[in-house]
Each structure stands twice: as structure tokens, then as C-alpha cells.
Amino acid sequence: MKNIWKKTAVIGLSVMMAAAMAACGGSSSGKPAQTEAAAGGDASYTVGVCQLVQHVALDAATQGFQDAITEEFGDSVTFDVQNAQGDSNTCSTIINGLVSNNVDLILANATPALQAAQAGTDSIPVLGTSITDYATALAIDDFNGTVGGNISGTSDLAPLDGQAEMFKELLPDAKKIGMIYCSAEANSQYQVDTIKGYLEGMGYTCDYYAFSDSNDISTIVTKASQECDALYIPTDNTAASNTEIINNICEPAGIPIIAGEEGICKGCGIATLSIDYYDLGYATGQMGVKVLQGEDISTMAIEYAPNFTKEYMADRCEKLGITVPEDYVAIEADAE
User: Fold this and answer.
1) Digit-coded pLDDT (tens) for 189-223
2) Which among 168, 241, 227, 166 is positioned nearest to 202, based on CA atoms?
3) Full strand arrangement of the beta sheet holding 257-259
4) Most buried by CB count within 10 Å: which residue of 8, 140, 190, 314?
5) 160-274+309-330 domain in CATH 3.40.50.2300?
6) Residue 32 backbone class (left: φ over 0; alpha: ψ -120 to 50; beta: rest)
7) What is the rounded distance in angstroms from the CA atom of residue 214 to the CA atom of residue 264?
8) What is the pLDDT of residue 1?
9) Mean pLDDT value across residues 171-184
10) Residue 4, Cβ density class (10 Å: 0-12 exposed, 13-18 middle, ≥19 buried)
11) Among the listed ranges 15-29, 246-260, 277-291, which one has the minimum average pLDDT value?
């Protein structure tokens, strides 16, 4: 009798431990927990979204992500979308809340959101989007294209050598280029360091003009516009949220800006080699569908945008007397 009781107790303990693991949101394999819907017994999911800041590019990526997942699961998926308003500390708070709520999947939109998710959970699957370079964002040495663990996602990196070529194509007489970026964004630093090498190889002189946050953008951009012939702004979230300030300084001064993405270009630039952020988010959502269906996120390689477009702002180029090659596509102005 005593041996039978012990065996029964062990079996019962094993069952309870398995149930507890399921309630905790999955295992280290990165496979999500699934909740049985009240009606019909179909699986339902809760997907958390942490977006760093509200601006056109990130908004489009989030929308594309939601559309791809909703297309597959319909009403069986619920989204908890939260915006950190540009504060990396708030990203951590949002992620911790999503982890506490035991969501099935997290979208980390922009680098500080991804860094917060990496610190916040090693079990709930995390997909990044609008991330320029995962090795830089997550401090990975010898990056081979797959993060591993519970993280994967998509990159918004456009060919930086192609962006550098735009200076030659559009601004052949420029000599000094200013690199405008937020020093708090690791991926912005990666971009300006990389493109600076390309530009200096073409014979340009380049200087860094870094701002720490939105409070000193005006001062830094004013200084750069006084000292440089043209400016470069990478895919920088703080800059993207403050394009009106930048444009109000540079346009009257006649200083052209090559931008890292369309939203910044539309706000203050003359041209960009850009991706479509909605498409990028949609591709991330397709990865999310696979994760929710049980595919192991640890084996998923980072995906990149398949297409890049040379785009320009016709009105600014015309005002500056810039001749635009035929392979550039005009960015449509926002409707009044």
C-alpha cells in the first residue's frame, strides 16, 4: 500500500508540474501557450505589441503585423498594443506587463522595445521589427543571421552603400556631410558609422552631429546646417518624431537631407532608398503566424525587406534646383 501511494503521489505531482509549465506561457523552446476559446474549443491567442514611439514608419509596421495575423486567425486573436512614447524605460514597463499577463507572442517594434523584451523574458516568443541590425541591438558576437532562443524578427536595413551613392547622384557639388542622429539609439550609430565609411571613400568629409533626445535636436541641427553642405539622417526614431523641427531649420537654409526611410524623407528630406514598413510588418506577422502554430522561433532566421525604392520629394528638389534621375519615384504628398 505504501509503494502504491508513493507512485500515485509522484504521478499527481508530475501532472501538476506540467500544468504549471503550460500556465507560465510556454517553455524555453519558444513555443507559445494556447488558450482554449470558450466556444467550440478552438485555440485563441493574445499578442502583445510594444512600440517605441508613434510615427509613420512604426505605425505602418504594427498595422502590417496585425493584419497578417488577423488574416490567419480572425477573432481568435486579441492584440494588446501599447506605445512607449519614445521612452525606453516605458518599454521595459510595457514588456513586464505583457509578461505578467502571459501573452502568447510579443512584437517589439524598434530597438529599445526589442532590448526590453530580451531583458524581460526568455520564454515568451518575441519578434522584432523596424530593427536595423540585430547583432548591434542585442550585442551578439559572430552573428550568423539567427538570434536563437526566443527571439527572431525582421530588419529594416536598406543598402547603406546605395544611400551613399545618392549623394553623388543628387548632390555632386557637396563637400561636407553632417550625420544627424540620436546617440541613445544603437542602430542609428551603426548606420552613420557605416555610411560615413562609404562617403569618405567617395571623397566627402563627414562629421557627426548627435543629439541625446528631442530636447537638443534644434540646437544640433542648427549647428550642422551652418557647417555642412548636406545632411544624412538614418532610420532614427527620435528624428522621425521630430521632422517638422528639422525641416523648419534646414529648408530655409537650403540644406538638403538624404534620409534612411520614407517617413523621415517626407518630413524633412529630399530623397531616400527605402523599404515599405507596412510590408515589413506584414512579413513579421507571417512569422508570428508560424510561431503561434507551433514553429520553433529559435530556428527562424532574421528576414529582410525584399525590395528597395529610390524615392524623392519633388517640391524640395525643385526648390533646391536638384536634377533627379529617371529611376527615382516621387513620394506622394499628404492630402491637405
Assistant:
1) 999 999 999 999 999 999 999 999 899 999 999 99
2) 168
3) 205-211, 176-182, 230-233, 257-259, 271-274, 309-312, 329-330
4) 190
5) yes
6) beta
7) 15
8) 40
9) 96
10) exposed
11) 15-29
Whether 131 and 151 have beta carbons less than 8 Å apart is answered as no
- What gap in Å lies between CA 237 and CA 329, rounded to an integer? 24
pTM as predicted = 0.80
Q: Report the distance separating Cα 134 and Cα 151, nearest Å.
A: 10
Confidence of residue 34 (pLDDT cuts 50, 70, 90): low
Is pLDDT of 21 > 80? no
Query: Is the model's pLDDT at 12 over the cut of 80?
Result: no
Name the residue among 207, 219, 213, 214 with its Cα closest to residue 178: 207
What CATH class does 28-156+278-304 carry?
alpha beta
Torsion of CA 109, 115, 118, 119, to 10 degrees: -130
Domain spans, the chain: 28-156+278-304, 160-274+309-330
Asked if 169 contacts 163 with a C-beta cutoff of 8 angstroms, the reply is: no
**One fold for 28-156+278-304 and 160-274+309-330:** yes
Residues recorded for the chain: 336
Question: Percent of the chain, pLDDT > 70?
Answer: 86
Give pLDDT, residue 36.
45
Q: Which three cell numbers stand for residue 92?
A: 521595459
